[in-house]
Amino acid sequence: MKALATARKNEQPDCAPGEHRRKRPSAAVSAAALERAVRIFKALGDEPRLRLLAILAQGELCVSEIAEIDDDGLSTVSQRLRVLRSADLVSRRRDGQHILYGLADQHIGELISNALAHASEGLPARPSAAKKNRKKN
């Protein structure tokens, strides 16, 4: 395996950059934007936080509603929301005595939707509850 890695390091390209006819992409993304994107993807890289964002994609909720839906404790949900807020993925607003949490903006909803749609591609359909019950009997 080590020999293969060494051989790859020593390989020379078969072409020169000037030989290509297509326009070369530029490194137009700023370092700050890349750094922020890394923070976003780190926050998304945890299944419970991603599930929480998928829940919030359906609309604003308070912590107790999220905890009930996700069957988690209030402190656990609050901690996840803190991480998501620090990554600018979630916003909050006061409504009387309640603090409602929602997605920070439309881009976050699209990002979550696209990620889950992409992850679902090629997966077998989930069996219905009726089929699960038949298999148990």
Estimate what percentage of residues fall within beta strands. 5-15%
**Alpha plus pi helix count:** 7
Average of per-residue pLDDT values: 85
Number of strands: 3
From the N-terminal CA to the C-terminal CA, the straight-line distance is: 50 Å
The strands making up the biggest β-sheet line up spatially as 1-3-2
How do the helices and strands follow one another from N- to C-terminus? HHHEHHEEHH
Residues in helix, %: 55-70%
Structural class: mainly alpha
Question: Can you tell me the CATH topology of the domain at 38-117?
Answer: Arc Repressor Mutant, subunit A
Oligomer: single chain
Describe the structure.
The structure is a single chain. This protein has 137 residues and is mainly alpha-helical. It has a domain at 38-117: Orthogonal Bundle (Arc Repressor Mutant, subunit A), CATH 1.10.10. Helix content is 56%, strand content 10%. It has helices at 2-10, 31-44, 47-56, 63-70, 74-86, 106-120, 129-136, and strands spanning 61-62, 90-95, 98-103. A three-stranded antiparallel sheet has the order 1-3-2. Helix 4 (63-70) packs across helix 5 (74-86). The longest helix is centred in the last third of the chain and has 15 residues, at 106-120. The model is unreliable at 129-137 (pLDDT under 50).
